[in-house]
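Put briefly, the fold is written as integer tokens. The lines below illustrate.
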Amino acid sequence: MDALKKGFSMAREGVVAAAEKTKAGVEEAAAKTKEGVMYVGTKTKEGVVTSVNTVAQKTTEQANLASDAAVAGANQVSEKAVEGLESVVASTGLVKPGEMPKQEGAVEQPADAGQ
């Protein structure tokens, strides 16, 4: 009977030692897993910030291109409107075609504007 007790005691000690090593192993694995998850989270956050900044920059660039195109379009429309008005004024005889100034960007005031 003593041999059985001694054998069971040795087996129990072995199980306790294995359980303690397993516990330590699990704790170490949990710590490493936590480190890995935190690292991935940090890198993902950095990647998201970089992506958001890139999208914001591209959006700004596109908005600038769109506004430049809108200004160019408005300038073309205003030029055509002025040309149309010049044609109307010339065709009604209010101003002779040779009297119309052809200065780009400058608007002349009529001679009698202050009277």
The chain is about 80% helix and 0% strand. Residues 10-42 form one domain. The helical segments are 2-92.
